[in-house]
Amino acid sequence: MSGPTVNSFFLGNSSGVNFSIILSRRDEETGKLQLANCSGSKRAGDWNLDVTPGMNTSKVTVSLTRTLELCLPNATECCPSPLCVVEALQVLACRGSVMLAQLLIQAEIFANSSFTGNVSENATIIPNQAFKPLGSCPCNLTAGACDVRCCCDMECTPDLQQLFSGSCFTGVFGGDVNPPFDQLCSSQSMEYTPEWFPFLCVQSSLDNTPFLGYFYHGSTSTPKDPSFKIPLQTSPGKPFAGYREGDPILTEEDEYFTVPQQSMAGQCVGNAPVAYLHNFDVRCLTNLESYKEGLPHDVRINTGTADFIQQNVVYRTVTDRGKFITESESLHAAEVLCQNVTFAEHYKFIWKDKNIEQVNVTVFLGSLCDGETLTQRFTVEFLSLKGTNGEEPNENPGYQAGKPVRAANMNHSDPLGSLNIWQPAGRGLCASATNRPVLFGVDSYSGCILEVDINEDCSLLRGNVTEKLNALIQATHIGKRDNSSYSDLNDWVEIIRLDPFSSNVSTGGLKGICPDIPANLNIRIIFAKVGAVQGIPQQQILAVQISYSTVLWQFQCGLGCKNTLSFLPITASVQFIEVPAQPPVPVTRYHKIYAEFDCNQNDVCWPQLLYPLTRFYTGEPYSQCLAKGLLLAFLVLLAAIMSNPWFSKL
């Protein structure tokens, strides 16, 4: 730790558990820390230990009680040096005399370096860099001291400058921040001055120098802060042409309409724009301290024709808080601070062609208290105006990004199937994890943790893991299109299953080691764009493959090896691979040879070496080009004949 406070967590029931902190001393001979026991207290030296119990998790806080200010003259209880605290701590969790957990902390804390003296009201005047260099002495690197060989350093006394006056830094670094540049007529810095230099040199003052970065009346570039504001119209009077798939939805203030969404890193971004015809369903974790309200619901939305519509908002109260709330701390009712917040928001956009006709929003409100973790849910769904009973018609039979992939189980009388991945909750255990559907075009990676005993039979473990992975895929076929019919087998592609590899390696009776555990499920979906409907690409699934990756599970022995349970993470990944709708035409040998002389594919174009003499050159009549070419060839031949090798012997 490098600060005065550090937090950790104790997993499990803390009833009857005694927490203590001790200062660990190193043995001067062996260099090892002294053995700890359970006879400590919650205070050791300048350190305090605070424990906040919870349901299955207890928060452990270690804090420093002493000050971190540097010592002033005749001061006590302060830091004599910048490195103020260097100590080793041990936090113990014991039940009686049995040690359950142990945490080793290496503390290296520096003193506060904030300025506490008098602040001068004289503001530093920064010169305009267009006319005067900001740093007139770049080699002056040390404040309040003389820099050796820096002759422009005003902090160097004349006696010190005499020591290195003959070896001062030269150039811009040595203080010559405004040297004459090579283009000046008075400059003699060029070693070889061409004969035409006096005709093209520059007559200018040294104040107008390129070393400053600007010239007089030059344009300056101001930094532009990133903003979600964009112009509604590209030119005055030009109407808004409507939305296309993937375009961000705009508000009346010419800003993006935003709803919290997940980023590529898995975190929630609160100001993410909503894309037209892109559905999503995300969940974001927050607490009362970090909770932020989203975009107000009274914001009017651009329909796509420069008209604006109001959102139809319906507010409801959450009845079952258990679906959204995870209690991380147990506080007394009198000490709890609660606030009415948004638990979920469901947006339904009714669209027609390139316009938005209606926006319906359902907001679920509930009470969030301090110490609780809220799982917010945000959904956006686009429904066609021509739909019946709120269902979107199959105008575009292909898949759209963000919609669930259709699955079917052709071996059952009810062919309805499912293709899911995990949605972990709580501690991330597989026993408490729920499922969520695989969305088209969205590469996903999820997993959960399986508790495994040290005496677990390897065959049973493989079967248990395989069963949990196969439970995600309750299907034998995947729909080629979003409107695939269960009665037509040609509308479906069969799932290709690759069984996990087994090497039949024997562990020799060792406990806690199991090879070839199929812990990773890999789902690869190959699709292609086969057309377009009203400008929207029609995407179709061509093949689906499911494979397994095996790992070597080994029991992880904790501190003291008191626990007989270990954890095995199992994962499921989904990858969408786009391929051409038609296989590319194979390149023949003729095309390979011709490509070497193709001017569009090579930097060197040999066919255009004599381009002015070819018929493709149309800048001048062909007869004039031919005459000039022959004259040029004659001059080259004459120069070759009149050169020294032939006439030197005459």
Structural features, described:
By secondary structure, the protein is mostly beta strands. The protein has 5 domains: 5-110, no CATH class; 137-219, no CATH class; 248-386, no CATH class; 401-582, no CATH class; 589-643, no CATH class. It contains 6 helices and 27 strands. It is extended. Residues 214-239 and 388-394 have low confidence and may be disordered. Residues 112-222 form the Tectonic-1-3 N-terminal domain. Part of the tectonic-like complex (also named B9 complex). Belongs to the tectonic family. It comes from Struthidea cinerea.
What proportion of the residues form beta strands (DSSP E)?
A: 25-35%
Number of helices, where a helix is a run of at least 4 consecutive DSSP H or I residues: 6
| SS elements, strand count | 27
Read across the widest sheet, the strand sequence of neighbours is 18-23-24-26-25-27-21
